[in-house]
Structures are given as structure tokens and as C-alpha cells.
Amino acid sequence: MPSDEFVVTPWHVEGEIDYEKLIKRFGTEKITPELLKKIVRITGEAHFMLRRGIFFSHRDLGRLLDDYEKGKKFFLYTGRGPSGHTHIGHLVPWVFARWLQEKFDTTLYFQLTDDEKFYAKQNLSMEQTKQFAYENALDFVALGFRPEKTKIIIDTQNIKTLYPLAAQVAKKINFSNTKAVFGFTGETNVGMIFYTSLQSAPCFIENRPVLIPLGVDQDPHFRITRDVAPKIGRPKPALIHNIMIPSLSGPGGKMSASEESGTIYTTDSPEAVKRKINKYAFSGGQPTADEHRRLGGNPDIDVPYQYLRIFFEPDDKKLRQIYDDYKSGRLLTGELKAILIEKVTEFLKSHQQKREKAKDRLEKFFFEDR
Amino acid sequence: MPSDEFVVTPWHVEGEIDYEKLIKRFGTEKITPELLKKIVRITGEAHFMLRRGIFFSHRDLGRLLDDYEKGKKFFLYTGRGPSGHTHIGHLVPWVFARWLQEKFDTTLYFQLTDDEKFYAKQNLSMEQTKQFAYENALDFVALGFRPEKTKIIIDTQNIKTLYPLAAQVAKKINFSNTKAVFGFTGETNVGMIFYTSLQSAPCFIENRPVLIPLGVDQDPHFRITRDVAPKIGRPKPALIHNIMIPSLSGPGGKMSASEESGTIYTTDSPEAVKRKINKYAFSGGQPTADEHRRLGGNPDIDVPYQYLRIFFEPDDKKLRQIYDDYKSGRLLTGELKAILIEKVTEFLKSHQQKREKAKDRLEKFFFEDR
Lengths: 370, 370
Fold this sequence. Notes:
- The structure is a homodimer.
- The first copy, chain A, has helices at 19-26, 33-43, 48-51, 61-69, 91-104, 114-120, 126-142, 159-170, 175-182, 190-200, 219-228, 270-280, 289-295, 303-312, 316-328, 333-365, and strands at 7-9, 12-14, 29-30, 55-59, 75-80, 108-112, 150-154, 210-215, 238-242, 246-247, 250-254.
- By secondary structure, chain A is an alpha/beta fold.
- Chain A folds into two domains: 7-247, Rossmann fold, CATH 3.40.50.620; 264-358, Tyrosyl-Transfer RNA Synthetase (Orthogonal Bundle), CATH 1.10.240.
- The first copy, chain A, is globular.
- The termini of chain A are far apart.
- The model of chain A has no long low-confidence stretch (mean pLDDT 94).
């Protein structure tokens, strides 16, 4: 892979992603200032993840909002492939989904694809992916969703609802389509080949349009869904994409739940958070404090700064101050890391309490097949 | 296709099938006189479909019976793809399955693959295949099964049980496997590609060996299942194959539920039966009665005779008499047809009454997901 190249698929992200290029490659649309204004007009504000381009791209969001303004409601759908414990990068689209849910007062479906991760990972059993699905669901619920409006779908548990919907989609997708979109080969197992139609299924679970906030790596699935939708007489899903969250060890990939050292889990202790950030977090600073004070750091590639930007510092003024101070060299790498450590520790302390309480409330969130 | 060639796949049967050749092509085993003797030793008799080679081939039946004699019980599984109304050809493996069930006192699962036929037939909706599944189930129940030991599985209804089993299989099958076994191409829809793993699933629904009585055209599915079974730590299913039931209009294909003129449906009136047999049944007789008396007929290609052999005349002596009389020319084509018409009419009169009663009992047979 040449150094200026990058790979973004639902199962593999590699290289330093150029999001402008990715928009062209995927054929999505950039979130323009005009679209942002429209969102503010409807919701009263632009979430900081929108202002900062964490959500940077979309498909048909403009049309969806136009329809919404004319009285046509939509519902929300997002999800997670339970291949491991939840890490803080996973929370990005979920927190944003909650904001959307509140602003548009609508149902949200959260799909946990235990089957997908079983198909995709040679060494994972279905029992393991189910267990991870349960663990991930706790983190989701801990973010403050309300069970009346929020339903968790687990593929193997809710297959009776999903399968007939998936079948409608599956009949309209052939192997060549999956080859073109996902790069599947003769060696790909038939579970994987079928699976995309199950990720499409929740798009059609209610008989109205859907908006899907999601990591941009998941876009290929819904490119297929959008092709199929008119063929089965259903509206095309609208999408809003977030960037890939860098791993602690730096840009060039998304944070992966299976790479212990580069990952902060939602269940990490304050000590683990401190140790991981201090030891592994990729820095945009200079080799020595003196040099740093003289030359300044580079917040644009600095992972602690990026984590503040993406998730942990919603206040634009404070973030700007940190940016300027780090760039000018006033703020040292250790100091910047200390800011992040405090923010993460504070967040996780509260999150872990809510996560514990979620254990008793989880049942209320599970979608029930009819 | 050269005239000596034939095609046998789960979705397409064409040409005059040479069953000796088919055994070699599929790599199955012939039911030998020794194996027949073993069956008689265990069950006390050989069903006429065994004696006459209607069930002609198997995989691992010898081993299964050896194990049975050592005390290792098995269960039974067969099924039907609900692409249309039930015709009399469908009843062949079901009647035989009932005999096996009684002789071996075991559970029987009957799978109705509404999803498969939806995937395979461009013009069938899932509502239609579901409706046919219900219709077909009535015919199945009418054959005298007991609900305590007999469970009907409908794919879309029982997917919660089937899918996790299918997923274990699906992970071990790749696209190239399905290409080699079924001749799938890039144009094949992903539902079809995945489907074979759902036909495998009931093989693993109980934790003991299974015997599957089935039309030989379904063998390719279980060739895959048998390859996969040891990889997921389960016993290979044993199979016993029946020949394809010829359509009324003659050898060179199996009776098809979608070809009205060549098909006697279980719901046909006595008039329809008479008309269809007289009008369409392919005859092995001579052009005129005089010639027939002089030269004799050919029962081996005569469809009315074959129907008697396959299903409607269990008495070997009576069948032999008909054979000899037709061959010698004593029995005319019209007379042979009249014998069949009487047998079919008699059978259907009783069957249709039982089928009507089955409507109230059907619920008892439906498999319940846990």
C-alpha cells in the first residue's frame, strides 16, 4: 500500500484516511455550511460533533430534513459489531444518535450484530459474540437512552423479525454485487455473503424513512441497501457518517477493540487510563520540553488533543485554548495528556456507575419479536 | 444436452435419469440386497418402496443401522420446498418417512422452506410461499403422523431456532463450495447462496444422528452438510434417496408442481384425475388396440404403471400381474389407466377427508422455538 493510500471497509481500516478523498471514493456528500444551518434551524443548535466535522459526510440528509420540515417523520438506526469490549471510540456515534433522538423525538433501533462478528472472526464463537453484545449493550444503555423510544436488536435473538426483511433484500443482491462492494472472493464464507442483508433489515423495520448515524467504514453496507430499497418499494435510508476514531497509538486506522494497548475500554480503571494515555498516546509534541516550548506542538496529529476534540471537550472555547496553547508550545505534552486523563477518568467514573445500573434495566430495551 | 445426458440439482431436473450413473456421479451408495436384509432384520419387513427400488441409494445408512443395533438412536428429517400445491409425487418420501418413524419409533422433523422458494422463484412472494407451506403441511399431516413425535418447521417461523445452527454451518462454507456443488455464479442472489446452510440446520436440531429420506435431487445440500459436520463436531447425516417421480406426461423430469397438465394435485376432484390421466398420462402402449394385443405394451416407460409401482399398488403380486398382462398385450392402455384412476380416486377421497381434518390439528404439529 503506497503511503498516501488508505483502506476503509466494514472489516478493515488501514492507513491515514483523507476524508475529502474518501467522500469522492464512496460517492457521499460533504456536510456543507448550508446543511449545518438547516440542522440548526430545525434543532436549535449544531452538536459539537457536527460543528467540528466529526460527522463530516452524509447521504440524502438534506432531503430527509426537507421532508421532516414538511411533516414526514423518520426513525433512527445505528449499531455495533460485538467483537470485543466497548471502547471510548464506539461511544461517538451513540452519543450523537442520542442527540438526534432527543432533537427529533423519534424511535432509535440499536443493532448488535453477533452473527456478523461470528462470521468475520475465525476465532470468535457465537457464545463469545453474544456475550460481547450484552457487554456493549450495557455501555449503550448507560448513555441515557429511554426504553420507551429505544430498542436494542440482537441479530440472533431478533432474527424472526429481521430475517423476512433481510430476505427481501437478499433476493435483490447477487454475489457480484458483494464482490464489487466488499471485495468478497470465492473464499468468503456464505454467512458473510448473506450478512449485509441482515444489516439492511432494520432500515425497513418501520414503514417510514430512516436516518443512520454511523462510522463511515459501514457505508458500503448501506450503499447496497440504497440500491435495493426502490426495488422492494421502500425509501432509501439517509446516512450521516462520522470519521474513524484514531487508536491511542496514532492516526492510521480506527481504534480497535482487539488491540489492548491502543484502546481505552469503558471498564478501564483510572490507573489503566492514566497508564495507557501516558504510555501509548501518540503525541504531536517535540522530543524535549525545551524544544516543545520553542517550536510548539502539532495538535492536528496529537491523539490526546484529538480525543478532546472528538469527544471529551464539548466547549469550543476551552478546546480552542488548548489548541492554541499546544501549538504555541505553552502547553506541554505531559500537561495535555493530564487534561485528557482527567476528562476520561471523570467521564468513566460516571459512565461505569450508569453502566452498573444498566444491568437491571437492560431487559426493558430489548426489542421483542411479534 | 445430448440425449443420453441428464441434469439433477435441487432446482432443476431434466432428461431421462440413469440412476446407476447418478449414483456414480453423486458418489452415493446403492441399496444392496445385504442392506435390505439388515433393514428387514431390524424392522421386520422391507417397505414396498425399498423392495422396488423407489428408494434406491443412500449415504451411511449401513453405519447408522449398525449404530442403531448397538443402541444408538437417531431421528428423522425431511421436507418440502413450498413452491406450489402438493402433488402426489411429493407424498412418496413422506409416506416412507412415516414408515421409518413407526419402525424406529423416533422424532421426525418436517421442514417447509418458504424462504428457499422465495429466493429461487423470481415471481413468488414470501406471502405466497408461506401460503403454500400451510397447504403442503395439511397434506403432510393428513398422512397420519402423530403430533407428539412429529414437528413441522417453517423456515421463516422457526428461524430463531434454525439461524444459530445455520450460522455454524455457513461459517464453514465458502462461495466456491456452493459454486462447485450447485453451479452458482456471480448472478446468484445472496439468499440462495446462504440458503443451503438453513437446509442443513435441522440435521443438528437434536444432539444425535439423523436419517434423511429425500428425493435424490436434494442430495447436493447434504453433501455440503456432511463435509461440514465433523468441522463443527457433529455427526454426518445419513441419507436415503428416492428416485424422481415422473410427471404424467412421461419420463424425463420429475413431476413439477408448476406444470398443471402433467400433475395430479392432492386436491384434484375425481373428474380432474380421470381427465388428466386419460388425456396426459404417457403410455407405453401401442398406437391401436389391435397392435397392442399383438405386440404388447412397455410397462417400464408407461407412467400409469409406474405410478402403481411407485405409490398406488403396494401388493407385489397384483402389480406383477398388471405388469405381465400389459407386457403381453392382454391389458390395454385404457384399462391400465382405469386401474390407476380408480386407485388415485380412492386414495384422494380418503386423503382429502383427512386433509380437511388436519386443518384443526395443524397447530399441534408446529415446532416451537425456545
